[in-house]
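Quick question, first post here. What does this chain look like in 3D?
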Amino acid sequence: MSHDKVVQIVKLLSEGIGIRAVSRLAQCHQHTVLEVLRVVGERCEYLHDRLVRNVTIDSLQVDELWTRVGIRQARTTPEDTERGDQYTFLGIAADTKLIVSYYTGKRNAESTFAFAADAASRIAGQVQITCDSFHPYPSVLNSFFNRRLDLAVMQKIFKKDTYNGSDPNRRYSPAPYASVFVKRIIGAPDETKICTSHIERTNLTVRHFNKRFARLGLGWSRKLDNHRRAVSLFVAVFNFCKVHRTLGTTPAHASGITDGAWTIERLIEEATRREPSLEQ
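> Answer (accepted):
Ran it through. Tokens below.
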């Protein structure tokens, strides 16, 4: 297929359009769209791994974003680790909005271990991290960041939900907000930097620009590998191509990684530079 067709498919995917819709708009088979996602998604993962290194940041916010792969969690077995509930761990720099690290897997100690190891390998120097109250975080993050870590927990507390299904205006609403629990865990975190607002706003961006994360729809991933490639594509576009309204530039440019905002064409060129042409 032509390079222009590849660019068109990647542009559509990066705007949150589903596989079947991309297939119709680009006038190609769904398997072709998935093959482009496979190639470009894998290369975007390598691009992130190569360029996002030795990053100096002041504050890192981490969170886990839920979605479903294949089937509902209730229909899986303990041995079925690639279907059911899956969580994407994200770590974002509060000042530059750069997604420094990400990992998709089950919400357990193993996934936390992989995510923390990746984040620690990319961040240079002292760093303050704010996370939620997921219990593996303190010990796992401390084991990788060691003496250069200041860790704080921020957890939102909600009132007991008494919704019984009678009010249609409350059907998809969360329980009423009550308070915020904040605790310093390791080191001496700066109170003014204990925050999870930026990562929670990024979670909304993920759900908007990646169809696989949309709730109450049919766009969820059928295979974990494809889901991970879609996440890698999103992160690359978010970091290198999308101009953040607050920054006035891309997160990668604000972090000093690139010389400016990239186009999708430039992203594909950089990501596939050492690979055979996508036209073959």
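The chain has nine helices and six strands.
The CA atoms of residues 64 and 136 lie 13 Å apart.
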